[in-house]
Design brief:
It is built from eight helices and eleven strands. It is an alpha/beta fold and about 260 residues long. The chain has two domains: about 180 residues, Rossmann fold (3-Layer(aba) Sandwich); about 60 residues, S-adenosyl-L-methionine-dependent methyltransferases (Single Sheet), CATH 2.20.130.10. Strands 1, 2, 3, 4, 5, 6, 7, 8, 9, 10 and 11 form an eleven-stranded mixed sheet that branches. Helix 2 packs across helix 3. The longest helix is centred in the N-terminal third of the chain and has 14 residues. Bound molecules: S-adenosylmethionine. S-adenosylmethionine binds next to loops.
């Protein structure tokens, strides 16, 4: 699979920039609120990145495993959270022996499930690693906001220790696989007199509420809550059947091992 530069050779730059782009403490509080309510203890975080949430889950006594498809991100997680358990893997094809009370897909990671096949494989895989009546909690970009207030250019300036980061972004509609868009970024990292530059190009996907409900329902989940904030939707869904749904049986009979390379 293709792993974007910002998650692989520049994973440390991602980690440093996102310390001031995401508010991990706030994000943790939201997940913790739902996990406490549903009494989930054993959790799997998909797209764990460099372990920012892992640190907080472990500190708060969750029985935690983090998984990411980037070996550089997994190496950073192990460096920053030595007590954590981290696995390299693809959320579209989870091959785990254990099952979990809840699976979390944090930090808009599900935005990388750009094709309907990706979404079907990921939800089916998550369904398989959940305990009876287990929970899926994940956040997604809200298509109804992203595409009605579409920004073609944007800039981010952040600072970490003595490094200055500048990201210049250009975005354009893609629409090849649903509510998708292309995001081209030019990065500059300035440290003392040295400047390093690199480019990345990513396709991202947003979902409407109805799309999320439909994908979840045909993969054996019931939506229990949808919380909207800014340009995102946080969905809390529960696994409602052990057996595959009719749609899953039909789909996976035809599509076994057909995961896109994007
Ligand atoms: C936007 S980052 C979020 C990272 C972390 N959750 C955070 O909030 O900082 C997305 C992460 O998902 C990972 N990722 C993308 N596609 C994946 C897949 N198919 N399976 C597992 N991880 C994936 C990337 O390597 C990256 O670390």
């Amino acid at each position: 699979m293709k792993i974007f530069k910002i998650y692989s050779e520049y994973a440390r730059a991602y980690h440093e920039m996102y310390q001031s782009i995401f508010d991990y403490e706030e994000e943790f509080k939201i997940y913790d609120k739902y996990l406490s309510k549903i009494k989930a203890k054993k959790i799997l975080e998909l797209g764990c990145g460099s372990g920012n949430m892992a640190k907080l889950f472990i500190k708060n006594k969750y029985d935690y495993i983090g998984l990411d498809c980037s070996k550089e991100m997994i190496a950073l997680s192990k460096e920053f959270v030595p007590k954590g358990k981290f696995l390299l893997g693809d959320m579209r094809n989870l091959e785990l022996e254990e099952t979990f009370d809840a699976v979390l897909v944090t930090g808009r990671t599900f935005t990388h499930m750009t094709t309907n096949h990706d979404v079907m494989f990921a939800l089916n895989s998550i369904h398989e690693v959940l305990n009876h009546e287990g929970w899926l909690i994940f956040d997604n970009f809200d298509a109804s906001i992203i595409f009605t207030d579409f920004r073609e250019t944007s800039q981010n300036k952040t600072m970490f220790e003595n490094r200055k980061y500048l990201r210049l972004s250009e975005t354009s509609f893609d629409f090849n696989h649903g509510w998708t868009w292309k995001w081209k970024s030019h990065y500059e990292v300035i440290e003392e007199e040295k400047k390093e530059e690199f480019e990345d190009e990513i396709t991202l996907r947003a979902f409407t509420e109805d799309e999320l409900r439909l994908f979840l329902s045909i993969n054996g989940f019931k939506v229990c809550n949808m919380e909207k904030s800014a340009n995102a939707i946080l969905t809390v869904a529960q696994k409602i059947n052990e057996e595959k749904t009719n749609a899953q049986n039909i789909y996976f009979k035809q599509k076994l091992n057909d995961i896109s390379e994007t």
